[in-house]
Amino acid sequence: MDWVCKCPHYQGALNPDDSVVLVAENAGKRILMGLHPEPGVYSMFTSRDVPISPGSRWRFRCPLCHADLQSELSLRTLPAST
User: Fold this and answer.
1) SS3 of 59, please?
2) How far is 47 from 37, CA to CA, in rounded Å?
C-alpha cells in the first residue's frame, strides 16, 4: 500500500495491511473491523461472527489509543448512534 491512514489523535498507522482496521462498537458489542481503503468499496471483515444489520449505526475508535473517531460534523448532523 502506498499510503498510510493515521489516527488523528495518536498518529499511529491504522492500515497495517490492505485494510483500515478500527474498533467498532454498537449496542454493547465491540469488535475489530477491517474496511476496504478505497472510497466507494464497502467490503469489510470483522474479528468475530457479529451480524451487521443494514442501517445500524456503529461508533469507530482507534485500535491503538481508543480515541473516538466520529467527526464533529457527523455529531451535528446525524442522530445519536444506537
Assistant:
1) strand
2) 17
- Strand (E) or helix (H) holding 75: helix 72-77
For the segment 33-68, what is each residue's pLDDT rounded down to a tens digit? Answer: 999 988 889 888 888 788 888 888 899 999 999 999
Sheet architecture: strand order including 59-61: 44-46, 29-35, 20-26, 59-61
- Give the domain ranges of the chain: 20-77
**What confidence category does residue 2 fall into, taking pLDDT thresholds of 50, 70 and 90?**
confident
Q: Are 22 and 33 in contact (CB under 8 A)?
A: yes
Q: State the residue for C-alpha cell 464497502.
A: 42
Query: Distance between CA atoms of 41 and 49, rounded to whole angstroms?
Result: 21
